[in-house]
Amino acid sequence: MQPSPHTLIGAHTNVYVEAGEQVFDMNLLGQSIRIVASPTEYTFDYGDGTAYGPARVPGGPLPESRWGEQTATSHAYQSTGDFPVTVTTFFSGEYSVNGGPMVPIDGRAQVTSPAQLLSVWRSESRNVADDCLVNPAGVGC
Fold first, then answer.
1. Sequence-separated (6 or more) residues with CB below 8 Å from residue 101
2. Alpha-carbon distance values, 127 to 7, 121, 130, 136, 137 (Å)
3. Which of 99, 119, 138, 139 is least surrounded, with the fewest CB atoms within 10 Å of its CB?
4. Cα–Cα distance, 35 to 122 (Å, whole number)
5. For the purposes of burial, counting CB atoms within 10 Å of the CB of 35, is it exposed (0-12), middle (13-18) or buried (19 or more)?
6. pLDDT at residue 140 above 80?
7. Radius of gyration from C-alpha coordinates of the chain
8. Rounded mean pLDDT of 97-104?
């Protein structure tokens, strides 16, 4: 998440997942088995009762100078608090026996990430006419 572990109310928080193809090689009953699982869709649960997906877009990181921009997978929180953010990745698979052709696997698997706690804060800004030397009791002093 960007920014993390804190963000501001009303600002877009970029949430993304880094998931790649998984390859499993094993022997089963004397046969050489290869299973390939590829991520195909993602569901983003922002922890505040809203979700996005399933979507084919995993999102991606932004340079720090662009934090707060809206992305396909970002979310703008409407209240302060601590929110458990998760992403569920859906995998489709295929298998091969003894080096033969790849055969699609019916159905798909889903893996949910461990929750990442995001604290949503509010901020206040104020204009002041003098500095703390002139007015030691002023805002921000």
1. none
2. 23, 20, 9, 15, 14
3. 99
4. 47
5. middle
6. no
7. 23
8. 97
The reported pLDDT for the residue numbered 98 is 97
CB 62 within 8 A of CB 71: yes
pLDDT of residue 135: 86
> Which tokens belong to 36?
């390939």
Cα separation of 1 and 15, whole Å?
5
Which among 16, 54, 45, 26 is positioned nearest to 115, based on CA atoms? 45
Query: How confident is residue 30, by pLDDT bands cut at 50, 70 and 90?
Result: very high
Dist. CA 86–CA 80, nearest whole Å: 18
Question: Can you give the pLDDT at residue 124?
Answer: 79
pLDDT tens digits for range 41-59: 999 999 999 999 999 999 9
